[in-house]
Design brief:
This protein has 555 residues and is of the alpha/beta class. The chain contains 22 helices and 13 strands. The chain has helices spanning 3-6, 8-20, 25-31, 35-38, 57-69, 72-80, 113-132, 157-165, 184-191, 211-228, 245-251, 277-304, 311-326, 343-355, 379-382, 387-392, 412-431, 435-444, 449-459, 477-498, 509-524, 533-554, and strands spanning 40-43, 46-49, 107-108, 111-112, 146-150, 175-179, 199-204, 238-242, 258-260, 330-336, 373-376, 399-404, 467-472. Helix 18 (435-444) crosses helix 19. The model has no long low-confidence stretch (mean pLDDT 97). The structure holds 6-O-phosphono-beta-D-fructofuranose.
């Protein structure tokens, strides 16, 4: 039996759902002039407007009851206090500790972990200052000009997203490159313009055993040594970020060039740790601290604000409302900001790797829907591509619209065009356009009545499509820190409600281990007899083309 679906608050939500499911938001706004005020929160430099959702005061109250019944408050405390909430791996999930002030103390396993955090930050700051001053020299004595982060998943997405989002805050002329794909094309594209004498590689991997990262790291080492010939110069050009000291040394990077972090930092929550090295090198420690402070402000809001005014709690609960009651299975992330281009990708790992699970914390099979499919891209481009489906498709897709009001340049005219679209789209999705309104519109255009009848069904918009509007004054490191932490905590809230462990990721392992088997088949030039006929045929096809290409090259 699933306790969640048997809980009083769950049953009461179902009852409430049957009363509210057909209500139109257009009417809710019409009959409640204070709706925006009632369902929006101003927090620091941010407006979180959730009034365009299919909820009433009562919905919110019942959702809050659900959070209370799930013991969310004590779970939040357990996370921030470093309890082993990642039960399958017997670890804490202490990304909150990475955002503490330097003088704070947080005891975990008998020691103040903030001291370790601050010590690593200091080492990172030193390297960043050397680089920015042009004092970090390559093996020929020339200053480093290019930084290449080699990592994947959380060891790539977070740093890549933040470095790109905060381009405006760059503190140096260093160029940044990210390699995650083991497809050699990406490696070659990055390397073709680089000079080994002026390139610094960051090998970023929590485990330092991830196949793609280690393959690319090896390729980088070979590329470097092919030019430089002497291994001793690696120390000027390779640094590692990892929890696995032994493997770092084994790879050939000295511990002096290693930046550590800890098992209580999950990969997808790691950009605040040494994994954020490339971020610090790009924007400097002052801005990185502002990013961390933004996250800390959101941590405190999440930890201490009553649920009905708590942004991540509300976001999480709305997601549950749509996923489990309305049956809306995907959620769109739509930034109206060029610098937030990589946000959807970043959040895909955060949410889908955290909550894409089908068993409870204690291993029971789950009988309800958990993490939805998260997707999205720049809203303004989406308007000319997939928004048709958002407006008139047969499924409803709740969406987060995210914008920053002030442009980084003074080009207000362009910015106003973008912001007007940001605002208008949520209005259109909410209101829709009724049959009567559409007829009126077509008549004002002078269409004949028979043309109106033919066009009419295609031009009606049902509306009632839920959106959150998340509006910042401007894109700063602090605001970005708030935004990211907000989504981290939203993800946590949903994990608590669904009773799943949001901090493990066993679902990625089967594919990884089978890939190793298939690779060994390639090496032996023979598929093992353990595969099905499709897999065998695919292996044979790959081998066929690889072999004929090899023969052609050697012949
Ligand atoms: O395969 C999934 C995963 O383990 C992610 O959780 C993680 O962020 C990524 O791989 C990279 O792992 P690592 O930092 O250990 O190389």
């Amino acid at each position: 039996m699933n306790t969640l679906t048997q809980s009083a608050s769950w049953k009461s939500l179902w009852q409430h759902y049957s009363q509210i499911k057909n209500a139109h938001m257009k009417d809710m706004f019409k009959f409640d002039k204070a709706r925006h005020q009632r369902f929006s929160i101003n927090f620091e430099d941010m407006l979180f407007d959730f009034s365009k959702n299919r909820i009433s005061k009562e919905t919110l109250a019942r959702l809050v009851d659900l959070a209370i019944e799930a013991n969310l408050k004590s779970q939040i405390e357990a996370m921030f206090r470093g309890k082993n909430i990642n039960t399958t791996e017997q670890r804490a999930a202490l990304h909150g500790a990475l955002r503490l002030n330097s003088s704070d103390v947080l005891m975990y396993r008998g020691q103040d972990i903030n001291r370790d955090v601050q010590a690593e930050l200091n080492r990172i700051e030193q390297l960043s200052e050397q680089l920015h001053a042009g004092e970090k020299l390559g093996f020929t004595g020339r200053p480093i000009t290019d930084v290449v982060n080699i990592g994947i998943g959380g060891s790539d997405l977070g740093p890549k997203f933040v470095v790109s989002a905060l381009k405006q805050y760059r503190q140096s002329n260093l160029n940044f490159h990210f390699i995650s794909n083991v497809d050699p094309s990406q490696f070659n594209d990055v390397m073709e313009a680089l000079n080994p004498a002026t390139t610094l590689f960051i090998i970023a991997s929590k485990s330092f055993t991830t196949q793609e990262t280690m393959t690319n790291a090896q390729a980088a080492k070979e590329w470097f040594l092919a030019f430089v010939k002497q291994k001793r110069f690696m120390k000027k050009h390779f640094v590692a970020v990892s929890t696995n000291r032994e493997e770092v040394i084994h790879f050939g990077i000295s511990p002096i060039n290693m930046f550590s972090f800890w098992d209580w930092v999950g990969g997808r929550y790691s950009l605040w740790s040494s994994i954020g090295l490339s971020i610090v090198l790009a924007i400097g420690m002052k801005n990185f601290n502002a990013l961390r402070q933004g996250a800390k402000v959101m941590d405190d809001h999440f930890r201490y604000t009553p649920f009905a005014q708590n942004i991540p709690v509300i976001m999480g609960l709305l997601g549950v409302w749509y996923n489990n009651f309305f049956g809306f299975k995907t959620h769109a992330i739509l930034p109206y900001n060029h610098r937030l281009d990589l946000l959807p990708q970043y959040l895909q790992q955060l949410e889908m790797e955290s909550n894409g699970k089908s068993v409870t914390k204690t291993g029971g099979k789950i009988g309800y829907s958990t993490g939805p499919i998260l997707w999205g891209s720049q809203g303004i481009n989406g308007q000319h591509a997939f928004f048709q489906l958002l407006h008139q498709g047969s499924q409803t897709i709740p969406a987060d619209f995210i914008a920053c009001v002030l442009p980084e340049s003074r080009q207000f005219e362009q910015q106003e065009v973008m912001l007007s679209n940001f605002v208008a789209q949520t209005e259109a999705l909410m209101k829709g356009r009724s049959k009567e309104e559409t007829i009126r519109l077509l008549r004002t255009k002078g269409l004949k009545e028979e043309d109106i009848s033919a066009k009419l069904p295609h031009m009606i918009f049902d509306g009632n499509k839920p959106t959150n509007s998340i509006l910042f004054r401007e894109l700063t490191p602090r605001n970005l820190g708030m935004l990211i932490a907000m989504y981290e905590h939203k993800t946590f809230v949903q994990g608590v409600i669904w009773n799943i462990n949001s901090f493990d990721q066993f679902g990625v392992e089967l594919g990884k281990s089978l890939a190793k088997d298939v690779l060994s088949n390639f090496k032996m030039q023979k598929p093992s007899n353990l595969h099905d006929s499709s897999t065998t045929a695919l292996i044979e096809s790959c081998m066929h083309y690889l072999r004929s290409e090899n023969n052609a090259q050697s012949g």
